[in-house]
TrEMBL record:
This is DUF2029 domain-containing protein. The chain crosses the membrane at residues 49-69, 170-196, 203-236, 242-269, 281-299, 319-338, 345-368, 374-392, 413-432. It is found in: Cell membrane. InterPro entries: GT87 (IPR018584), UCP010361 (IPR016570). It comes from Rhodococcus xishaensis. It comes from the Bacteria. Residues 1-24 are annotated as: Disordered. Pfam families: GT87. One of its GO terms (cellular component) is plasma membrane. Belongs to the glycosyltransferase 87 family. Keywords: Cell membrane, Membrane, Transferase, Transmembrane, Transmembrane helix.
Amino acid sequence: MVSPAPLAADRRSADWRDVPGHTDPLTSRLSSTIGGPVGRHALIGRNRFFTPMRAILLLAVLFLILGWFTKAGCIQQAPVGVNGALGLDWSGNRQYVAMCYSDTVPLYGAERLDEGAFPYKKSWEEPRPDGSVQQRYMEYPVLSGLYQYGSMLVAKAWHSSTWLPGGLQVAIYFNVVAFGLAVAWLATVWASALLAGRRVWDAALIAGSPLVVVHAFTNFDPLATVFAAGGLLAWARKRPVLAGVLLGLGGAVKLYPLMLLGPLLVLCLRAGRIRVWAQTAMAAIAAWLVVNLPIALLFPRGWAEFFRLNSERGADPDSIYNVISSFTGWAGFDGPLAPGESPNVLNAVSLLAFVAVCVGIGYVALTAPQRPRVAQLCFLLVAGFLLTNKVWSPQYSLWLVPLAVLALPHRRILLAWMTIDAFVWVPRMMYYLGVGNKGLPEQWFTGTVVIRDLAVLVLCALVLRQIYRPSEDLVRFGFIDDPVGGVLDQAEDAPPRWLPGWLRPRVGVR
């Protein structure tokens, strides 16, 4: 991100690079607090130390620090154990009142990590509401589980040391996990800034997103975003095998990075670059298998726990299906279920709804007058998955942040959506607190979920508008086509002969 010399000054000037102080009214007004926007004749990118990339990463560090403080209330200790032994102070429902809840803390005991157990090998029994017993294993995909295991080993080694600062083992574990997640998010910001091309300052929206403050340390999702962003960066640099490896590893953390192969498929089909996509897809499958096969062969029941649990769980509180039930009293597609019974109809409906989203996105990608950008289709796919899926855990919104910024770099619109999405955490915690504990009724929470979903739908509509009106796309500028495109960048349409006419671009070859 540093200009090496006066060479190419015409492309590094304020006329070529996007300067938010000139192009964005909000940024221009905010810049008045530090002296106003950069001058019209300034040469951008000449400072060798305080570059845009370093400024953005510094902003990301500041917001990650804020994110750690929002969770710090849940690792406070107090004499709550036997004979005044120190333990986590969650008295008075602190995790909800202070809104500091993080899955990391309770999972340390719930997943038997405090016992030093290896994930997927260790099993335990949990009682069901009907009195029966369910055998349980680690519920996360392989790389997520191994990350928890590695963090536990570090935490136990730290706790046993006599020369390091002491504390509760679970608190040390949380901080070890948080440090790794912070590094992963910084790498996500770095990769996204490179993907932004001339609009490098758009990555500041990722670094300073309100969702980072709320959810950077809620779960392990920054591990998935870094593989997704890294995979797209490798694709943009025309390294399809490396892109596939990173997306495959991301699929071993959370499944969504593997979904990004879908937009690449239809775009490569349109451009006649299907062999390049095949390299990426084969590398992704190979990387996923290398990580998963050893665990699946050694501990098949533990490995399958993630899939079993997701097939048996009902509609998540944040899902559209639960929102409808909340306001109408609807019992759901499957009605009351027995413990351990899968909501088969709900599973089928959510799957078919997502398939319909994929078909619609594929139609847009193949028939739009100008080939859509990779980031645009990736955002539409992931947003469609979250909107139609039966599970939308609050931290999943982090998946959308880099993709939304790369797809639709309108700062005020994105900040409005991120703020709404982050605010959903407040009524969610108050709903979990319970009305009897001066919490909020369910409808206050599900009402904000409706607003969040509408905001995401608006973003999708704006992305579709820019696909069909590429002249309004802020990313495409002069000779710039698609910074994330890789082999698709500047590529002409060359669909295969067998593709029917109604699936071909509506306008002739560019």
